[in-house]
Amino acid sequence: MTNMRKATSMVGAALVLAAGSIAVSQGTGMAQPPAPAGPNVKYVVTADAPLSFDINYVTSSPADLKAFNADASAYSTRGSFVAPWETTATLADPQWAYISVARAGHAMEAPPNAHCEIWVDGQLAVQNTGPTTAFCQLSRW
To answer: Which of 17, 29, 48, 80 places its Cα 20 to 30 Å from the Cα of 63?
Structure first.
């Protein structure tokens, strides 16, 4: 009978621990993420076909244009991405938002009609389209 009580106690303790861990995981799973530090900026690139583009975009706000020009890579990201493509950045001042989209023209290929958009806090701020390049920028440039 002692072994039976011991086994029952162990099973009961395991159930209590399991129920407690479920309650804790549900409580932390519902926690709200902290609010972003600044306005949310979304960059969007589209084209007539899923092609690779060289894209350069601002990821953080510089103090001024001189700071940006001194070390552009500290404030922006450059890479080759396939359209359609989008990303977000949190900029302290969304007026620094900028994106350039470029693809070299190829013989016997129709222009891809690159299109860029900058959205600030869910509102379309600027958009532009060009045959092989597109630039979108807000007022700090």
So the answer is: 80
